[in-house]
Amino acid sequence: MSEQHEASLAVQIDALLPQTQCRKCGYQGCRPYAQAIANGEADINQCPPGGDQGVRLLADFLNVPAKPLNPAFGMTQPLQVAVIDEANCIGCTKCLPPCPTDAILGASKQMHTVIATLCTGCELCIAPCPVNCISMIPANAEWTAANAEQSRQRHQAKNRRQAKAEAEKSERLNRQKQLLAKLNKGKTAV
User: Fold this and answer.
1) pTM: predicted TM-score of the whole model, two decimal places
2) What is the per-residue DSSP string for 61-129?
3) Rounded distance, CA 48 to CA 50, Å?
4) How far apart are CA 142 and CA 51, in angstroms?
5) Pairwise CA distance, residues 97 & 185, whole Å
6) pLDDT tens profile 67-117
7) Fewest C-beta in 10 Å: which of 9, 21, 28, 183?
8) Contact by Cβ (8 Å): 103, 114
9) 190 pLDDT exceeds 90?
């Protein structure tokens, strides 16, 4: 299979995934999982948010037999959203980086809150919280294709922003190293 075909296949598989970016499949998000399926490195039954319906969609698309969701990756459950007990939030910001869609609003030493309409229910914010003030509650809604598309776009935007910040940081460090080298060279010449 050509690289171009694999990339195209991965994009099509990614379009079938729920875009919760939860990492329960063992990959860093839906797109890497889709790429792994396209490459034959992952099975179609590793996505708990997609559940059996998601497995069937992938099986039909790839023309392979459907199979039950692999329980080693988790179980399907109703959509949930994170909530922060704002009275106990210490504003540490540790929940912000893992949120794949920037659904948490807050600043250092300020109370945080979750924008429920942007939360994918991924649960990635829970473990980093040092005061256990984040819990999951039923969303009382169904995850739709529109939710998945919004999540994909927000996740991609966050990834682009982080990559740009990392590149700028690297460039800044390189400039500092060059300046330091020039300064050190000037000292040894004197």
Assistant:
1) 0.84
2) HHT-------GGG------EEEEE-TTT-----TTTTT-TT--EE--TTS--EE-GGG-----TTTTT-
3) 5
4) 13
5) 40
6) 999 999 999 999 999 999 999 999 999 999 999 999 999 999 999 999 999
7) 183
8) yes
9) no
